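Weekly puzzle thread! Below is a chain. First person to post its structure in token form gets bragging rights.
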Amino acid sequence: MNPALLLGMPLHEAERIWRAQGGEVPPVRVTHDPRGERAEGTLRLVRVRDDEWTAARFLDGAPRNPTEEAERGEK
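Winning reply:
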């Protein structure tokens, strides 16, 4: 599978799909708006390279990652 097909997906979904296809997820760099990093929003895959993926948060109302919510103590 071409990892570019995962662009725009929530990161946790892209990782799950990539692993299900037998791929190993490379390190993920999280980027943010130059005005500052935010904790809210959906972490989405925005760039893929062989050795690194890049994700950024979007305020788009997509379902949140339950693992991230649990780590932050949210319900």
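Puzzle host: Confirmed. Bonus trivia for everyone else. The first helix runs from residue 11 to 20.
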